[in-house]
Write a structure and sequence with these properties.
Distance between the termini: 135 Å
Structural class: alpha+beta
Largest sheet: 4 strands, antiparallel
CATH architecture of the largest domain: 2-Layer Sandwich
Number of domains: 2
Keywords: Membrane, Transmembrane, Transmembrane helix
Oligomer: single chain
Strand order of the largest sheet: 1-2-4-3
Helix content: 55-70%
Mean pLDDT: 85
CATH topology of the largest domain: Gyrase A, domain 2
Length: about 170
């Protein structure tokens, strides 16, 4: 009789046993090196994120300092500009005596000057008493200085005269 043939499982088991005996014996692996290398790889992005946050904070501090410096400079330049405009307007505006002379030349014969005031912002306020305000208005409209003036009030006095108050817009 013939010897029984080995089954497929028997031949696989024999080959596995032979392979185990032929295996090379390697020294044990030190896992500390692998752990250190893994830590370095993970630490790269973390350090990048932390460095970017630090740089961002520095840039924001610098930006705030520049913004504060620019704001102070802008405010001082604005104050200088407003002072220069006020000075320019004051110099260009005719003096009060020149204004009084022009009013005297323009007023009709029955009109009298009651008061003239000029505020700090340059607004001119004139009170004139007259019998009839219509010729007064027409006379003032003929002079370019008084064209911009508007009548702000009108009242009648006890003696029948009319007090007309006029003022410039600016």
């Amino acid at each position: 009789m013939t010897p029984p043939r080995h089954s497929l499982l028997d031949s696989i088991a024999r080959r596995g046993a032979a392979a185990r005996s032929m295996r090379l014996s390697l020294p044990p692996v030190d896992l500390r090196f692998a752990a250190a290398l893994t830590g370095l790889v993970a630490l790269g992005p973390l350090l990048t994120i932390a460095g970017a946050g630090w740089i961002r904070a520095e840039v924001e501090r610098g930006t705030e300092a520049l913004r504060a410096q620019g704001q102070a400079r802008f405010e001082s330049e604005g104050a200088e500009r407003r002072a220069a405009m006020l000075f320019r307007d004051t110099v260009r505006r005719p003096t009060l005596s020149a204004t009084l002379d022009r009013i005297a030349r323009v007023l009709p014969d029955d009109a009298r000057l009651a008061s003239v005031t000029r505020a700090a912002d340059g607004v001119l306020r004139i009170e004139i008493t007259t019998n009839d305000p219509d010729p007064l208005r027409a006379a003032l409209r003929r002079d370019p200085l008084f064209v911009a003036m508007r009548e702000s009030a009108q009242r009648r006095t006890g003696d029948g005269r009319v007090v007309v108050t006029m003022r410039t817009l600016r």
